[in-house]
Amino acid sequence: MRTTKSQVVKAVEPITGQHMDTTVLSPATPTEFGPQQRKLLRRTIAGSAVGNILEQYDFALYASAAALIFGKLFFPSFDPTVALIAAFTTQAVGFIARPLGSLVAGHVGDLHGRKRVLVAMLLIAGISTTAIGLLPTYAAIGIWAPIFLVILRFVQGFSFGGEYGGAILMVSETAPREKRGFYTGFIPASSALGGLLSTVVLFAVSLLPPETFEAWGWRIPFLLSIILVVTGLIIRLRLKETPVYKDAEVKGKTTRKPILEVIKTNPKQLLLAAGISFGFGTLNYVVLGWLLSYTAVDLKVGAGLGLIALVIGYVFYGISDWVSSAISDRVGRRPVILTGGIAYGVWAFPMFAMVDTKSPVLIVVAMAVSLTLSGMIYGPLASLISELFATKFRYSGASMGYQLGQTLGGGFSPLIATGLYAATLASWSVAIYLVIAGLITAASVFFLTETAGRDLTH
């Protein structure tokens, strides 16, 4: 096997505390990516993806539960519309926590490595999600029920804020640069798998009699997350630090103040990455969150149809994530994301025209097309944000840029969509909102330089 020069560094294993010699493969060039690097890459993709599946399972599950049941269980004294707004507000709290999680995880990840942060975030996510499944409702403990729900949602958001950027970097800093999009695309695709799993499980328990689902059936999907936690820990504890990070660590190319340095030296990249993420988050969570309640409550087509449409949509979403990311290796990240943003802006009005027919077939098609277009943005965005920043503050920069946009876009878009529809009683107001979000995504990526193929060691 041909590899670059190996370097042996003395390390303290973060989990066991045992001292050991760890052989670190320096970042390989395309011609030097041999069997050992491929084995490392496969393990890294599996370890990064399984944790991301859990995080996305948690977040998508909460979004769907907030749209379908949380208003009734935790805010029963409110008018149905106000209760829905209150439930979506608790969802927004999770997004507010994400930038804080990105700051903490980014700082620790840039100073001490990516792996240990991902293990910690996985544990935090699993504990908070399982606790939601055990939480008493308003009928049992009164005002403390929504308070505890908000706290647990905040913890969920904190963990996801630190998870996604690290999962991306674990793969992008291990993959060969000419196929970085191809391999990194498995991480956003795993997000779709997490959302798909949560929707399938929620749909299954929604088939229970309504009184049973409301009494305890809704808890089952939250409690099942413990299976993903255990699986993820088993895989992640076997991961090795990325070659790119170890190379920078050995050469002394790290910084003690990664957050301050990335803000000082790369403000444009941070803001434009946040702009892309803002537009994408708005587009995505209007469909994944608000549209589900719109079809069930306002159009009265039944929650089951919305969940079925979402399951099918997630399949298209995952395929689009990975294919779009792979294509971006050849044509660049910017053209693919730009096309996705503009296409979504054009699609917004036809999407609602199809949904408003109440036709099951057209609702499914509308959901599938919408999430396919979202995937055109989400897939290449994973590689792009990892390529915008230097290794010494890459975790901080990638996480902050992505999570700031997600907080402002994804966190508040269901609330804004609910308010727009309540004010106009017409879907065109929400369609205009999506057009603006698509254009913000397109404009933000337009002002970035192409990043595909960049050497992450420089």
Automatic annotation (TrEMBL):
It comes from the Bacteria. Keywords: Cell membrane, Membrane, Transmembrane, Transmembrane helix, Transport. InterPro entries: MFS (IPR011701), MFS_dom (IPR020846), MFS_trans_sf (IPR036259), Sugar_transporter_CS (IPR005829). Gene3D superfamilies: MFS general substrate transporter like domains. It is a multi-pass membrane protein. Pfam families: MFS_1. Residues 44-455 form the Major facilitator superfamily (MFS) profile domain. This is MFS transporter.
